Amino acid sequence: MSHRRVSVRYPRLRIAGGTTLPKPEASSAPAGIADSLAGDMFSSLRVADYNRLFFGNMGFQFNNWMQQLTFGWLLLLIGNSPFWLGLNGAMAGIAMTVMSPIGGAVADAWERRRSLLVTQTTAVTINGGIALLFWLDKLEIWHLLLASLLMGMSYTFNMPARQSLMAEIVPKPLLHNATALHTASMNLARITGPGLAGFLLATIGPLAVLLVNLVANCWTVSQILSIKHRPATPPRPFRLRGKEIADGFRFCWATRRLFETLLIVSASNLFGMSFVQLLPAFARDSLGTGPEGLGILTSSMGGGALAGALLLARIGAITHKRQVIKSAAVAGCLLLVPLGLSTSVLMAAPVLAIIGALSAVITALGLATVQQYVPNELSGRVFGVYMLCMGLMPLGSLPSGTLADSIGTAHAIAIWGIVGAVVLGGIVTSQWLADQRTQAHSEPAVADARPT
Known about the structure:
Elements: E1 7-9, E2 12-14, E3 20-22, E4 25-27, H1 33-38, H2 48-79, H3 82-109, H4 112-135, H5 141-169, H6 172-203, H7 206-225, H8 242-254, H9 256-272, H10 279-286, H11 291-315, H12 321-334, H13 336-341, H14 345-373, H15 379-395, H16 397-407, H17 409-449
Antiparallel strand pairs: 1-4, 2-3
């Protein structure tokens, strides 16, 4: 007896704003292998405006990772010290920690598409200026540090607006998938961006990378301009007041599950991910490789992150997000020990791939937690708080870079990972004890409420 597999056809269903989504309908057409493997992995891309936002963000992230590798290599060539790498990361971190709450408040007050246009145009200007200075042979360390500071400020306004806009244009049932795909696009850029940057640095030179960055940013601007979504109600006027900015912090503090997740994300970025800024020095001084080897290392981390993000998109909603984030954060810090002990690119690349997968899990589930709890009118400000937590990653490169200047980059990475694992272990234990106390207090109340 033969069996014929039943698949699903998707005629169009119109929703608010003119976007169309699929509605299931039975069909006897055989399913392809790709459909069976992917399932609904890319379902949110059927939302036209999210499709434009998604591919525009890929160009932005592509530029971001190419720029990070290129700036780091230029600083290492000019300054010849891992301290400058740490300071460069700290410049972006300072901007993110100081400006993120303001950027989140602006995202709630101003049309989010316009916020994205302003920040992306700023990035085009900065990239063009650095490329011009290099072409004129006038580029100095302070130029790169200032550019990193300005790009960090731009990113603090960009990210809350982008995440809030995504929550506006993607229907709730598809939002988890959109978040996972967003994380996957970031990590795809982590593969292609550094790999191409390392190849161009080794074969042509930094100017080629800087020009590719400029083109990628221009592509992002064109995609944002094509987004048709407009808010249903006009944004309220923005007032730079303490109460407006503090509302996001108050909401995070009052929402315990969200606060606990943000605390784990903060510690993970400060200790577990700040080593990324030191990779140029680690590649050159510890592994004895050049920009092509650095590109392989960064792309390996991006490859692992992409695999982790796509796996999350394929699985769908995860029930125990808090436990998964905590485990991934502690494991990511512990893996910095074997990374620091690596003596070749072949040894370091697989470790970086696993760290990348764990970082994708933390990022995607952290964003999903924010979107789960935050109301739309506060989304920009809460995402501003989330950006502050992310800003601890480049900020943590300053103490780790100073340590690397004293004892060597490889040893500094391993020690910083051990410190991070200890700190995260303390945070996880304290949260577990708090859960136990809450459960112990709730059980007598439940028992008293039962009829005798």
